[in-house]
Amino acid sequence: MAVAISANGRDHEPMGLYNLLLAELECPRCLVRARCAVEFRLGLLDLREYRLGDILRWAGGHRGKPLRRPDEGTADGEGYCECAHCGKDFWVRVHVRDDRIAEVRPDADRPAHIS
Ligand SMILES: [Zn+2]
Fold first, then answer.
1. Which of 23, 41, 86, 93 has the most CB atoms in a 10 Å sphere around its CB?
2. CA of 115 to the centre of ligand 1 (A)
């Protein structure tokens, strides 16, 4: 099967593909700590469920960063989730160190969609 390469050199990823990071986070909207399913786009995007400390599976082939393994397995990305308590959304920063999902925390600087 032929692989389409876009102008920026990346494979075409079907829209809406992401991975999930299940983590307990303090919602910046209601300040309640709750389990969140964070959607994020790092590594191989196949709807895999990760938890903090898990090793991220990188994409192979000719895919560009951040899907392919960066130097030393270190990458920062963004994630998105909706609070299970108040139903409002917020963005998070996802930090990968040595191929492991090392940290996830709310990104207070980025405006949410749901007001
Ligand atoms: Zn909340």
1. 23
2. 12
